[in-house]
Amino acid sequence: MDLRSVIALFALITAQCARASPPNFVLLFADDLGYGDLGCFGHPSSLTPNLDRLAARGLRFTDFYVTSSVCSPSRAALLTGRYQTRSGIYPGVLYPGSKGGLPLNETTVAEVLKSKGYATAIMGKWHLGVGLNGTYLPTRQGFDSYLGIPYSHDQGPCQNLTCFPPDVKCYGFCDQGVVTVPLMFNENIKQQPADFLQLEKAYSEFASQFISVAVQNKHPFFLYYPSHHTHYPQYAGADYAGKSPRGPFGDSLMEFDGTVGKILQTLEETGVINNTLIFFTGDNGPELMRKSRGGNAGLMKCGKGTTYEGGMREPAIAYWPGSIQPGVTRALASSLDILPTFAKLAGAALPDVQLDGVDMTNILLNHGPSERQAIFYYPTNPSEKYSVFAVRWTNFKAHYYTQGAIHSQSTPDSNCSSLPLLHHDPPLLYNLEADPSEYYNLNSAEWDSVLKQIQAVKEHFEASMVFGESEIAKGRDSALEPCCIPNCTPKPECCHCTSAL
Ligand SMILES: *[C@@H]1O[C@H](CO)[C@@H](O)[C@H](O)[C@H]1NC(C)=O
Ligand SMILES: *[C@@H]1O[C@H](CO)[C@@H](O)[C@H](O)[C@H]1NC(C)=O
Ligand SMILES: *[C@@H]1O[C@H](CO)[C@@H](O)[C@H](O)[C@H]1NC(C)=O
Ligand SMILES: *[C@@H]1O[C@H](CO)[C@@H](O)[C@H](O)[C@H]1NC(C)=O
Ligand SMILES: *[C@@H]1O[C@H](CO)[C@@H](O)[C@H](O)[C@H]1NC(C)=O
């Protein structure tokens, strides 16, 4: 072989290796963020330049759904590719002293990727359980390392905590009678209460460190960043406080966007940006009861706590330069589809369980159609008796039951706040493509064949559903609340440790 053919052969092998090396994944998950909250989804005064850049140079989803309109169940489904009803993360959400958590025999996307040698890390809000001696922490579910508050940052008294510099106290009181929110590193408490003003900076540094080390060690990596932003109470450090025209919510969103920018910068500096798939979405719709301090569902009806579109349809963006062409997709997709998609791209085997997610790679890589035809909307307190409240099949959505929610109180639409459960027989039927705001119920006689089809899809789904034992119904024990001085008294006040990050 002459030198030229050796070089050509070498170039060929290098190119094939480059293609064959599995991509890195960064999964960004905002909190209580509505369909209408980002600049690139139409909000006039949100400043989200980094997310807007991902949307402009990546694929923006218009029809992306989560599986629940509250935190814990939505996160369980995201990480397992299975409805929360299977894993038992219902009704409602987990609390600091919850006895249960995401069962350890559930396979998370981190565990799937670890089987292919991925380095894995999570920073931010876990909210899938703490339990006795950290039984349910992310380090027990496939994540090599963790920095964050293991549940919502309003699940502890916040009236004395600082949310904006120099010392603006958090708005409201948050949950009383429990420990203040801890900041954990792996399974240890680093600070209690967590210092909100320094938190995002700590996350950016953690991300940068994690990515740099993985790249140095030539490991593919998975970084999961479920942010506390933009959940109540909003907070922001000195770099973002007062910087957004939208007020506290806007500052909090802008700080999240800033962390996204810093992650992008690290990916660029370490030279892996073109081999990294970044996926962004949020856990559920906006908490409208917070009024202008809550999010905005845009033209979607109602918000958090409901099975209307505003509760469960979320902004979503996929970005992977060179592999995902820029554009907009109307393909139907769900947070359930993340696990099968990442597994496919990593060449990892799917867990041997009943999955509800489908592979989205055809949408991502070819702007192709979805394998998914339906979305099922469980209420926040799912039961076998009532089953799913609504079904979307193609562009039609049928509501069998509707109910407003305390989380969605405050808008002029009384359907969002009215609490009695309404049964609809025949179901209310909306064409979401013609009427995304669910304003105009179609005449059921005229659309009988569509309703029959939806009913068949619903029954088929229900036949596959086996409810797992409720983890949340296992109850709480205040002795399980994370405390930095385990045996101190009197609790919860004595659980107080200040240390620099
Ligand atoms: C996990 O274990 C529980 C209790 O034994 C069982 O009911 C459930 O089906 C298991 N889940 C999976 C995903 O294997
Ligand atoms: C929990 O951890 C404590 C302190 O390390 C230990 O004394 C106790 O035995 C552990 N409990 C269980 C059930 O593992
Ligand atoms: C907040 O501070 C006030 C005044 O110092 C104090 O009385 C109160 O106990 C504190 N509350 C909490 C939950 O820390
Ligand atoms: C990523 O790909 C783009 C377009 O091909 C190229 O301009 C850029 O230099 C690449 N970046 C890295 C870090 O490889
Ligand atoms: C909204 O409220 C009105 C008035 O109570 C009721 O007639 C209608 O059925 C409700 N719509 C939905 C979708 O719940």
From TrEMBL:
Pfam families: Sulfatase, Sulfatase_C
Cross-referenced SUPFAM superfamilies: Alkaline phosphatase-like
Leader sequence segment: 1-20
Domain Sulfatase N-terminal: 23-348
Entry keywords, A to Z: Calcium, Glycoprotein, Hydrolase, Metal-binding, Signal
InterPro entries: Alkaline_phosphatase_core_sf (IPR017850), Sulfatase (IPR050738), Sulfatase_CS (IPR024607), Sulfatase_N (IPR000917)
Entry cofactors: Ca(2+)
Molecular functions (GO terms): arylsulfatase activity; metal ion binding
Xref: Gene3D superfamilies: 3.30.1120.10, Alkaline Phosphatase, subunit A (3.40.720.10)
Similarity comment text for this entry: Belongs to the sulfatase family.
Protein name from the UniProt record: Arylsulfatase A-like
